[in-house]
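Incident log, structure service

09:12 report received: a user says their structure output differs between two submissions of the same chain.
09:20 pulled the input from the user's history:
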Amino acid sequence: MKSKTIAFINNLISYDYMLFGGTFILFLFLIIIGIILRRKTVLAIFFILSSFIILLGVPTIGYVKMHEFLFKNALVLTSEKKLTFTEAVVIKGTITNNSKRYFNRCKVTAKAYKVSNNKLKNFLFSFKAFQKISITIEDIEVGQTKELKMFLEPFYYSKKYNILLGAKCK
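09:34 re-ran on a clean worker, output below:
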């Protein structure tokens, strides 16, 4: 847990600090207004509750949405083939930098999950991958497309499955 927290703090960018700092200032501002309006109980409670909601909600949602916008990428699964003589799946795809920022590295993750005829089960299976693999791709220029190839091994699953690709870039 400690190493994950340190890694998170080390990977923050200046926009993250502005988001967190602005949120904290807004939190303090709303608390002060709530204290000033303490004679009007309903209004004071509204400002204090909204300040805590903003303190918890804005950094969380803002961080995710801001990073989706700043580090926008397109990941395409071009082919996926289960090998016959080896217990493995070969996954080929492309990643494109669609943002206005240079990517130092992208962590591309491929997940294999079960498929059934039930839509609800499919939705639940998409959260619980039975196998996954990650690779790191370095140095992607703005607008550049790079090809990737991954091997999901050992792969013993014989029924129907889907492959889901995801990427987190910095």
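09:41 both user submissions now match this output. Likely a transient worker issue. Closing.
09:42 reviewer note: Residues 2-70 form one domain. The radius of gyration is 22 Å.
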